[in-house]
Design brief:
With about 160 residues, the chain is of the alpha+beta class. The protein has three helices and nine strands; from the N terminus they run αββββαβαββββ. Strands 1-4-5-8-7-6-9 form a seven-stranded mixed beta sheet. Strands 2-3 form a two-stranded antiparallel ribbon. A hairpin with a 4-residue loop joins strand 2 (about 40-45) and strand 3 (about 50). It is elongated and about 65 Å long.
Length: about 160
């Protein structure tokens, strides 16, 4: 039997090959914070723009800084048997599970914290829960139906 470190390396390689060969590539929006509007001025009382009709910031004064990160993952529907195995409350049949590499954890957490919406097969979804595998070789990202309008298309 191989030592755990060699087994983990082999598992990482096998999972990476499976995700690369059979996965779907999509773009995650990464929220990098906010920048101040250069056209209008800050109203310190309300922490918004002094010009509510500013064409640059829309009256908020703060402009979100966003970058894109490409991720490949294996997307699957959650069915009744998957629902029984996950042991995560709040999921429903028809939600999605995306298996991605562990190295993309920070980007997924950012999307979870900022409630970034994705269009998966015509349904608007947001990340609900992120669970690493036991050996931390990959992540299972669970997505739920969302009512958000600004979405990133996965397929």
């Amino acid at each position: 039997m191989l030592p755990l470190k060699k087994q983990r390396s082999r598992i990482i390689t096998d999972e990476q090959n499976a995700i690369t060969n059979y996965g779907t590539t999509f773009v995650l929006l990464n929220h990098d914070g906010v920048t101040a509007c250069t056209v209008c001025h800050l109203d310190t009382t309300y922490n918004s723009s002094t010009d509510p009709l500013c064409s640059t910031c829309g009256g908020s004064y703060w402009i979100p800084a966003v970058s894109c990160h490409t991720i490949t993952g294996i997307i699957s529907h959650i069915d009744g048997s998957e629902l029984d195995l996950t042991k995560i409350g709040g999921l429903e049949i028809g939600d999605y599970k995306v298996k991605i590499m562990y190295t993309d954890l920070a980007y997924c957490e950012n999307a979870l914290n900022n409630r970034v919406a994705f269009n998966v097969d015509g349904s608007s979804m947001t990340i609900y829960k992120i669970t690493p595998t036991v050996l931390k070789t990959s992540l299972n990202v669970f997505m739920k139906k969302s009512d958000k309008q600004d979405e990133v298309a996965i397929r």
